[in-house]
Amino acid sequence: MKKLRCVLIGATGMAGQQFVAALAKHPWFELTGIAASARSAGKSYTDALKGGNGASGWFLPEPLPADIAKLTVQAGDEVRGADFDLAFSAVEADVAKVLEPKLAEAIPVISTASAFRYEDDVPLLIPPVNAVHASLLEGQRQRRRGKGFIAPIPNCTTTGLAISLAPLDAAFGVKAVLMTSMQALSGAGRSPGVVALDVTDNVIPHIAKEEGKVEVETKKILGTASAPHALGVSCTCTRVPVLDGHTEAVHVSLKKKATPAEVAAVFREWKGDAASRGLPTTPERWIVVHDDPYRPQPRLDRDAQGGMATSIGRIREDSVLENGIKYVLVSHNTKMGAAKGAVLLAEMLCEQGFLGNSPGK
After folding, report:
1. Which one is catalytic: 246, 251, 290, 332?
2. Which residues contact 154 (CB under 8 A, 6 or more apart)?
3. Residue 232 and residue 195: Cα distance in Å, rounded?
4. Which candidate in 6, 26, 133, 156 is catalytic?
5. Which of 342, 347, 353, 354 is nearest to 124 (CA)?
6. In the chain, which ranges are continuous DSSP H helix?
7. Is 156 a catalytic residue?
8. Is 133 a catalytic residue?
């Protein structure tokens, strides 16, 4: 079967570039169209990435794929959904609010934007955690009278947290979680991003709207398709001078008491939802557990399993919370938390028949 023709909206940004890398030589999907802002339209992708001084804006260690480099960039609002089978969206929420429904009239849209995450007929999907919520997409398609649908992934900070809580909730039940994040600079993008003089030798103790997103999204992901989870979620989100990889200190109140060894065993044994297994982007393990008390660290662990695994360590008893457990996690914010996570979602939906017959069959 032929590969599905894909268009990427927001191709020049940090998340967009990660999409280009994730889709290079993909066995099911072919990136046949790229789009960005009007100022990039008409340029080759290579030229659109260049800054005012002529320097290349391609920031990934992987080489820019030659076939993508020569594609001509379209303006995002000029993309015709009928020309493609699937759209990946890596634009800001205000742009997504306009462009994504237009594209969804014709084709499915897999998005990293927050614009539609909180609507009742829009599932917030992490394939190993809540694949069953994909059933909402058919209702969304019928209700909105489009051929496609909008399927966003969660905020990148939510992703690692939800992955770590899912096996705990299944094994012991989760009553409440307190989390403090130490988030990488790449999560803020490059334009405008974070000013170097503000973050160097510093920790910025506030990220606008981030804490509310994590608190709402975690409940939606861990709940049912029709109702959020009842757990309490409270968090503090900070920005630190790390390039990639969000670190989170997590304190959990369980419904049933568990020892750190039992929690570690549950993490190690968790295989995730069956619907997420065996896909092209699926890692060997969703969670990597460290016994070394100095791990995980973003520089050492963000690329675990190709950036798709959540690394967890320092699992200890929390004597303040009821049935308390605490741990530290690292999750790659622009891979599993953005582009590769979105590609993984597209693969799962393809296998489930939401994108037509799977090219893998």
Report:
1. 246
2. 117, 124, 126, 162, 217, 221
3. 34
4. 156
5. 342
6. 14-23, 45-48, 66-69, 93-104, 127-130, 136-144, 156-171, 196-199, 210-222, 260-269, 298-301, 339-351
7. yes
8. no
Domains of the chain as residue ranges with CATH: 4-153+339-351 (3.40.50.720), 156-331 (3.30.360.10)
Q: What is the pLDDT along the chain (361 residues), one digit of tens a residue?
A: 689 999 999 999 999 999 999 999 999 999 999 999 999 999 999 999 998 788 888 989 999 999 999 999 999 999 999 999 999 999 999 999 999 999 999 999 999 999 999 999 999 999 999 999 999 999 999 998 889 999 999 999 999 999 999 999 999 999 999 999 999 999 998 777 899 989 999 999 999 999 999 999 999 999 999 999 999 999 999 999 999 999 999 999 999 999 999 999 999 999 999 999 999 999 999 999 999 999 999 999 999 999 999 999 999 999 999 999 999 999 999 999 999 999 999 999 999 999 976 665 5
Residues 226 and 243: their CA atoms lie apart, in Å, by 37
User: Is the pTM of the predicted complex or chain greater than 0.90?
Assistant: yes
Q: Sign (positive/negative) of CA torsion 140, 214, 193, 63?
A: negative
